[in-house]
Design goal:
12 strands, alpha/beta, binds magnesium ion, 58% helix, Rossmann fold, five-stranded parallel β-sheet, five-stranded mixed β-sheet, Heat Shock Protein 90, binds adenosine-5'-triphosphate
């Protein structure tokens, strides 16, 4: 006898003790663990305690018949999957069909052919085992799929997180790059202005001494000349009959004209010397190095000294009419600001205006209206002042106007413009002075830049 296989438990249900005996003995001999039941009810009860691997079920039984027993087995989750083989008489083919439709896997016919019983039992046990293995594998696979799906989702969200971190970092980096560019730009401009300031200060200093010298002495010279002329007149009156040598010399020198013109020459020299003193004063104003502190400043002085520096570009030039500067200054208080930086803004705006007008003039050398730069200042309210630098040159088309304040934006040829003037100017006005710099432009009015700044830093 073969040892019982725990997965080969067979329940035989038959009301005929003879059949039961023969079948159980045979299967027992074949090495199966055999349980028996005489009717459907007790078969169902037995399945409660030990679930068999296969059931051989008679159809015709007292009490509940085989069909009903099968139906109840199939209704219970614990017993639903047990393969059921019906045992029917040869003649009862209708039973076979019904049994199969109720969920039976097979049938065997009475009287039993032992080989056939064994073959079918073995086949269905094997199928059942295979089915179970398959179901388990399926479950395992399903779990694996779920695990993989979860891993994939985690990976995807990690990926997304990574992507958004990369994007954020990129944004940070490009911001840093932008800041660096700005800082560089400011440094370059700052250095440029400092160098210009130094140069101007040096020139002003060098001119200052000799001009003071001239200015101081021209008055004395004037007095002395007056005295000498007076003396000459007196001589002429006292000695109308001069010697022939003197008369010849007087004629030679055109003494009459000399007496008349010399005071005029001296007056011109005085005016010239005063002009030069004015220029030197402007140069000194312009180059005044501003410290880290803001200080109260006369804005008009800053504008005037900048205009003075640019004077040569405003005058009539070989192929170009002069640019007229109209000043419309309001009654400004002293403004608490950083004068060096503000002069830099005036310089940028005025140079831009001159460039625009020159460019316009180069296309139309005799325009219907002569080129004008209008500079107006006004008190806006008790806290703010406004400075407007306008020119009647070309208007700036909308797409260009949007980019004016971007660093490196220029419409000028390479080597002429760096495209930094306005971006620096806006930074100086907005960030250093807490003000605003705006551009308005229209074909009818030309272009104007409007600065608004608080008249004292720290208060608005
Ligand atoms: N008054 C103006 N009229 C017409 N266009 C102007 C005027 N001011 C500025 N622009 C335009 O704005 C552009 C940018 O000006 P911005 O001062 O920033 O640079 P730039 O003058 O080209 O070069 P940079 O000032 O660095 O030498 C100019 O190239 C010009 O096209
Ligand atoms: Mg410029």
């Amino acid at each position: 006898m073969m040892p019982a296989d725990p997965t080969r438990n067979i329940l035989i249900v038959d009301d005929n003790p003879n059949n039961l005996g023969v079948l159980s003995d045979f299967l027992w001999d074949m090495g199966f663990e055999v349980l028996v039941a005489r009717d459907g009810e007790s078969a169902l009860q037995k399945t409660q305690y030990a679930v068999p691997d296969l059931i051989l079920l008679d159809v015709m039984m007292p009490g509940i018949d085989g069909f009903e027993t099968c139906r109840r087995l199939k209704a219970q989750p614990a017993t639903r999957d047990i393969p059921v083989i019906f045992m029917t008489a040869l003649s009862e083919s209708a039973h076979k069909v019904k049994g199969l439709s109720l969920g039976a896997v097979d049938y065997i016919t009475k009287p039993f052919q032992q080989d056939e019983v064994l073959a079918r039992v073995k086949l269905h046990l094997k199928l059942h085992t295979l089915n179970q293995t398959l179901a388990e594998q399926n479950l395992r696979l399903q779990r694996e799929v779920e695990t993989r799906k979860a891993a994939e989702a985690a990976l995807q969200s990690l990926n997304q997180e990574l992507e958004s971190r990369v994007a954020a970092r990129t944004q940070e980096l490009s911001q840093a790059l932008e800041d660096l560019k700005q800082a560089q730009v400011q440094m370059v401009q700052g250095e440029k202005m400092a160098a210009l300031g130094q140069l101007v200060a040096g020139i002003a200093h060098e001119i200052n001494n000799p001009i003071n010298f001239i200015h101081g002495n021209v008055n004395h010279a004037d007095t002395y000349v007056q005295d000498l002329l007076e003396l000459l007149t007196l001589y002429q009156a006292e000695f109308p009959q001069a010697t022939p040598t003197i008369q010849t010399k007087a004629q030679e020198l055109d003494a009459g004209f000399l007496q008349e013109d010399l005071p005029k020459v001296l007056t011109s020299m005085k005016i010239g010397a005063n002009r030069i003193r004015g220029i030197v004063q402007s140069l000194r104003n312009f180059s005044r190095i501003s410290g880290p502190e803001s200080k109260p400043v006369n804005i008009h002085e800053g504008i005037d000294s900048t205009l003075m520096i640019l004077n040569s570009r405003l005058k009539t030039q070989p192929n170009q009419v002069a640019i007229e500067v109209i000043k419309d200054y309001g009654d400004l208080p002293l403004v608490d600001c950083y004068p060096g930086q503000l002069n830099q803004v005036f310089m940028n705006l005025l140079v831009n205006a001159i460039d625009a007008l020159e460019d316009h003039l180069s296309q139309d050398p005799s325009p219907p209206t002569s080129p004008i730069i209008r500079i107006s200042t006004a008190v806006m309210n008790e806290h703010q002042i406004t400075i407007c630098i306008a020119n009647n040159g070309p208007s700036i088309p909308e797409p260009i106007r949007k980019q004016l304040f971007n660093p490196f934006f220029t419409t000028k040829p390479v080597g002429k413009g760096t495209g930094l003037g306005l971006s620096i100017s806006r930074q100086i006005i907005a960030e250093i002075h807490q003000g605003s710099l705006q551009c308005h432009s229209s074909p009818a009015q030309g272009t104007e830049f409007v600065i608004q700044i608080p008249n004292s830093q720290g208060k608005q």
